[in-house]
Amino acid sequence: QVQLVESGGGLVQAGGSLRLSCAASGGTFRWFNMGWFRQATGKEREFVTAIAWSGGSTYYADSVKGRFTISRDIAKNTVFLQMNSLKPEDTAVYYCAVGVGSQYGSSRTYDYWGQGTQVTVSS
Questions:
Q1: How far is Cα 87 from Cα 102, in angstroms, rounded to an integer?
Q2: In a designed cystine with 26, which of 2, 8, 100, 101 is the match (CB 3.0 to 4.6 A)?
Q3: How many helices (H) and strands (E) does the chain have?
Q4: How many whole angstroms separate alpha carbon 118 and alpha carbon 101?
Q5: Is 82 exposed, middle or buried (0-12, 13-18, 19+ CB in 10 A)?
Q6: What is the DSSP string of 22-70?
């Protein structure tokens, strides 16, 4: 079965950077999209970014464009989220997910989810 394990979250001051990792196992992902979502306390889970495993096309929410970068290491079955210029409003639990649907911005598209990693940005 597919398993996703996120890591790299933590506490950072506004303007700082973090890099999240999501290690995937248990499947072949060439036809999949890998997405990052986040959920702040009291809010709905929202799309952050996604990447096509094969080809590398990327998609970003407007709120993170220019600050966040998604990438992948195919050999290691790992996707990364580089987060720069972090803002307090980026504070959330970040989840990685894998799915085959074309609606990359919808959480319902994704079949497998990691446990989440907390990102806290202080002002």
A1: 29
A2: 2
A3: 0, 11
A4: 26
A5: middle
A6: EEEESS--TT-EEEEEEE-TTS--EEEEEEETTT--EEE-TTTTTTEEE
- Record the tokens describing residue 69, joined without a space: 């970068």
- Angle, vertex CA 11, rays to CA 7 and CA 16, nearest 5: 100
Averaged confidence pLDDT in the chain: 94
Among 68, 63, 56, which residue's Cα sits nearest to residue 29? Answer: 56
Residue matched to tokens 């799915």:
99
Residue 39, CB half-sphere, CA atoms under 13 Å: how many? 10
**pLDDT tens track for 48-104:** 999 988 888 999 999 999 999 999 998 899 999 999 999 999 999 999 999 988 888
CB contact at 8 A, 83 and 66 = no
CA quadruple 81, 38, 4, 1: dihedral, nearest 10: -140
